[in-house]
Amino acid sequence: MRRGLISWSRDEVPQAVLEARVGRLQQAMRGQGLDAVLAYTSFAQPAPVQWLTHFVPYWSEGLAVVFAQGAPALLAALTARVHPWIREVSHVAEVVSAPRLGESAAAFLRERLAAKPKVGVIGLDGLPWSVGEPLIHAVGAESLVDVTALYADLRQQADSAEFDLAKRASAIGEVALRAIPAGATRASEVLAAVEASARRAGAEEVLLRIAPDFTRNATLLRMEGDAPLGERYAVELSVAYKGSWVRVNRCVALHGAPSSWQAAAQWLTKAALSISAGRSTPSFDALPDGGKLSAWTLESCVGVHPLSVVAAQDRPPVNASSEGGVAVLTVELALPDGPWRDSVGLVVGAAGGHATLLAT
């Protein structure tokens, strides 16, 4: 369950922005002959429904249905008691109570669509079977097509609202990491200070991982207890603000940052700026001071999850970057004086151009 306040600021995300996103999807639907598009939402898979309607569930699950015209309908596996709240925080044509989501969705589509429709599903492979099976019985397996790639193409053209939210989330994360106490000796001190800062700044979700002794073990852990801090430790903060997720990383040395870290940060910034449309692999110049690149990932929203790895050092790119897409580049370096980890949030630049950094 999410713990932060989820609300809809129409100054930050105007209704017209949501209508424009749905309109772009409906135009693409007409081009592919789709009668409807379905987007499942849950705590773990909120991205498409949030982008289309601004709705993010605290718990439970739901299904947004986009027809050829009008705002989406939202089938919610929640009691009618929370329907007023759903209408308050999202832009939908109607909210339908659907305690048995799959069966309710099947009945809903049978009432609204003609026989043998063509129905697109965002994230079809990840659709829970409890939802997918009744849909197959209702419209037929041949009627359901995966439109994740179509959604990803639309989503990667970030509008000004998405850019501003990602920038705010990034700022919340950076400030939170700067709140780490200088004299901290235990992981709990670090994690508590980071989460407190992010929550006070308006984050509705905060996920933290830490490598308490980064020199000995670079594995980032979700702490369920406590641990002493080594001479060098690393923190990863994933933060959501109004449904927009970013990830920020920071390496900390108890006795002050080595001089090599400044050069490494400049190197990372240059690599991030090299990411442009059609190019998901950054341009990594030679590292200063004889360092080596241990690992890197580029993450973006290209499916049902807020952030997915689209490129990394150990795999080919999932797809080419699109201009305007919000992404996070994370690197881990082996410097002569020890390991270092950091990340940069960015907006993918035009082909042949440069990315724009979220942090200013």
What does this structure look like?
This protein is α+β, with helices and mostly antiparallel strands and 360 residues long. The protein has nine helices and 14 strands. The strands form three sheets. It has a six-stranded mixed beta sheet with strand order 4-3-2-1-5-6, sandwiched between helices. Strands 11-10-12-13-14 form a five-stranded antiparallel beta sheet. A hairpin with a 2-residue loop joins β8 and β9. α4 runs parallel beside α5 and α7 (160-178) runs antiparallel to α8. The two termini are 32 Å apart. The relative contact order is 0.12. The model has no long low-confidence stretch (mean pLDDT 93).
Shape: globular
Low-confidence stretches: none
Percentage beta strand: 25-35%
Strand numbers in spatial order across the main sheet? 4-3-2-1-5-6
- Helix proportion: 25-40%
Rounded to the nearest angstrom, the radius of gyration is 22 Å
Strand-pairing-aware structural class: alpha+beta
Distance between the amino and carboxyl termini = 32 Å
Helix and strand pattern: HEHEEHEHEHEHHHEEEHEEEEE
| Number of discrete helical segments | 9
- The chain-level mean pLDDT equals 93
Largest sheet: 6 strands, mixed
Number of strands: 14
Which features would summarize this protein structure in a list?
31% helix; 5-stranded antiparallel β-sheet; 14 strands; 360 residues; 9 helices
Topology, please?
Elements: H1 15-32, E1 36-42, H2 47-53, E2 61-67, E3 73-76, H3 83-89, E4 94-97, H4 101-112, E5 119-122, H5 129-139, E6 144-146, H6 148-155, H7 160-178, H8 187-200, E7 205-211, E8 232-241, E9 244-253, H9 260-273, E10 292-300, E11 308-312, E12 326-335, E13 338-347, E14 356-357
Parallel strand pairs: 1-5, 3-4, 5-6
Antiparallel strand pairs: 1-2, 2-3, 7-8, 8-9, 10-11, 10-12, 12-13, 13-14
Helix pairs in contact: 4-5, 7-8
